[in-house]
Amino acid sequence: MGDSPLLVAGAGIAGLWAALHAAPRTVILLTGSTLGENASTAWAQGGVAAALSEDDSPALHAADTIRAGAGLVNPEAARLLAEQGPREIEALYALGAPFEREPDGSWALSREAAHSRARVARVKGDQAGAGILSALIAAVKAADHIEIREGWRAEALLPGADGGCAGVLARTPQARLVRIEAGETILAMGSVCGLYGVTTVPFTSQGQALAMAARLGAVIEDAEFVQFHPTAIDTGRDPAPLATEALRGEGATLVDRAGKRFMLPVHADAELAPRDVVARAVHRQVRSGRGAFLDCRTAVGGAFPERFPAVFAACMSAGIDPRREPIPVAPAAHYHMGGIATDLSGYTGVPGLYAAGECASTGVHGANRLASNSLLDGLVFGRRAAEACRDAEARTVKAGPAAPSPVLPAPALARLRQLMAAEAGVERDGAGLARLLCAVDDLEAKYGAADALIAARFVAASALSRTESRGGHFRSDFPQTAPGARHTRMRLDEACAAAPEPLLATGPAE
Ligand code: SIN
């Protein structure tokens, strides 16, 4: 076992679960905010998918995960996810996460898109993320092996003399830069979705982990696969509040301005079609001016305040009463399937560096994540990364110099977010992606290689190199899915090259 502290950067579900499961190893847990703030986990509404009912099984859950992932899911990752699911729910429940139970004691389960069974364990209707996070925060605060440093933001990785990672350079609450050396570091710092003009996650999720890992030589995998949630509440808020997919699971319908259901001609599963299909349909409705609205009046009606309190509050504060009127919706960047390439224990291939949760790419989500598999991913792979670090051979680290990434001024960041939404959004094409890369070059020439620019570059270069449409990646100039499924894998120098290598094969196509 490594005898130096284990560093965990990030305090969403993956980081906190990893910190808890690294015991007895000492953990230094860094979070740029106070615990519970700026973690996408807190905003998750639907719940955690797991095979918990009599008519379900991990094999069915894994099969749905693989089907949703459009040919790019690593079947072993899906198997681990699905098999571990029920145990993780039990463990969270034992910790105090208040999952709902039916009167007979069984789990209360919601149905969400592309699941063949009702299998989403929920908390007070739409409060899953917040309920789970508060149980986790209480547990880490009570854990003797965890030293929590709130307001400490990881800004760069320390290079080790062996070419690996030797810890992090962190900014303290007093704005000092401090080097923290560690034999192992787990990055669990969330997604790139805050780089989009419309997002459902905290604005602060801007691909920092991805950029930090890439600078140290890590491979970034499948960065083009950004998932757009079809039903963000469209009232001009940034970030946009979510109207959980569980509403459609309850029977809420998607209608145009005239009240006509528009998913019926698009897909046999209508509102419960795979998320990318619904997101594109909503996108086209909005773009055409016909509008997109989620009509919950019949399916939920007067029960809204009790059954979906978070959505209800978000609507009411924007002057929309969802019991009486349809909710205006639009797609918003919601989840990054791609990220830092890791094995199934979170190891990045860079000695001492691990990643877990949304910033990692284990291949478990492929091209399109199945609804409510994200919290489960954080649990299963956060735990596995912690166990790998706990059991790692002691590693001597000798840390070299590191500097923080340049900061992108607010107007430049606003421009980047607008460009990401326009050119790397629900529908992309080669010309738009090339424009985006040129804009990233210009911004970088002016302000330096900020983390946000590096992350945006990976998304754009990967999307440009994938000349097909698959899952969350839709190219209007290549609308078909190409035969054979391949991952996109790039290091920083490849992403920076004008013509990135197209689609390096990484294994057998499914
Ligand atoms: C939702 O509640 O619709 C989001 C769940 C998810 O992203 O998996």
TrEMBL record:
Domain FAD-dependent oxidoreductase 2 FAD-binding: 7-375
GO molecular function, one term: L-aspartate oxidase activity
Residues making up the signal peptide according to the UniProt record: none
Residues covered by the Fumarate reductase/succinate dehydrogenase flavoprotein-like C-terminal domain: 448-486
Gene Ontology biological process terms from the UniProt entry: 'de novo' NAD+ biosynthetic process from L-aspartate
Protein EC: 1.4.3.16
UniProt keyword Flavoprotein, yes or no: yes
Keywords: FAD, Flavoprotein, Oxidoreductase, Pyridine nucleotide biosynthesis
Cofactor: FAD
Catalytic reactions of this protein: L-aspartate + O2 = iminosuccinate + H2O2
InterPro entries: FAD-dep_OxRdtase_2_FAD-bd, FAD/NAD-bd_sf, Fum_R/Succ_DH_flav-like_C_sf, Fum_Rdtase/Succ_DH_flav-like_C, NadB, Succ_DH/fumarate_Rdtase_cat_sf
Pathway given in the UniProt record: Cofactor biosynthesis; NAD(+) biosynthesis; iminoaspartate from L-aspartate (oxidase route): step 1/1
UniProt family annotation: Belongs to the FAD-dependent oxidoreductase 2 family. NadB subfamily.
Entry protein name: L-aspartate oxidase
Provenance organism: Marinicauda algicola
